[in-house]
Amino acid sequence: MRAFLSLDVPEDLRNPLCAMIGGLRAGRAVPRETLHLTLSFLGDPSEEQLEELHGTLETLHAPAPELRVGGLDWFGPGTARILAAIVEPVPELVSLQAEVERRARKLGLTPERRPFRPHVTDTAGGVGCAAPIPRQPATGAGAGSARARSLAASLHPVQGRRAL
Fold first, then answer.
1. Which residues touch 76 (CB under 8 Å, ≥6 apart)?
2. Whole-prediction pTM
3. Of the residues 54, 61, 119, 156, which is catalytic?
4. CB 39 within 8 A of CB 2
5. What span, in angstroms and rounded, lies between the C-alpha atoms of 55 and 62?
6. CA atoms of 95 and 91, how far apart (whole Å)
7. FRET pair for 104, CA 20 to 30 Å: which of 32, 93, 138, 151?
8. Does the annotation count 61 as an active-site position?
């Protein structure tokens, strides 16, 4: 089962993010609670490897990165493209991503080698907000910003994948 590491999008950023997306549909709309920022794709690790990684990530103490959304962009080739909210690569976020991948590699995992391009997507193939939300103005050039509270290091299945 494919696995990945992600940060949950903070509650105070979800409504502005969904308002920025507006009525656009790019893939299946999903509950706004599933919006996340992927830090690393881990491939297909064993349950034992995931449990070991979970343990090492519980000891990670890093500053909570500010998530600043700056606009929308398309990801992926051909018809598999998804709409994503681009997140500014602030130093705390880039450092956190590098550290979780370093810890994964130290345990023998092989995170996919792709440049880190911070963005918010959902697991269904597009950014979506299934529940109606009140319209609110976006702040700055994008949907706004919020500080991520922590790296969620709990195991749970996510539509054929395992998120950590």
1. 82
2. 0.75
3. 119
4. no
5. 15
6. 6
7. 32
8. no
C-alpha 163/C-alpha 157 separation (Å) is: 6
Question: Which residue out of 36, 54, 61, 156 is catalytically annotated?
Answer: 36
Tokens (6 digits) for 107: 């345990």
How far from 129 is each of 29, 79, 146, CA to CA, in Å?
Answer: 6, 21, 18
In the annotation, is 156 catalytic? no
47-58 helix and 91-106 helix, angle to the nearest 10 degrees: 130
Q: Using one digit for the tens of pLDDT, what is the confidence trace for 81-133?
A: 777 889 999 999 999 999 999 999 999 999 988 899 999 875 445 545 654 43
| Dist. CA 28–CA 8, nearest whole Å | 19
Under the banding of pLDDT at 50, 70 and 90, the label for residue 30 is: low
The separation between CA 111 and the C-alpha centre of its own chain, rounded to angstroms, equals 15
Q: Which domains does the chain have, with CATH numbers?
A: 2-163 (3.90.1140.10)
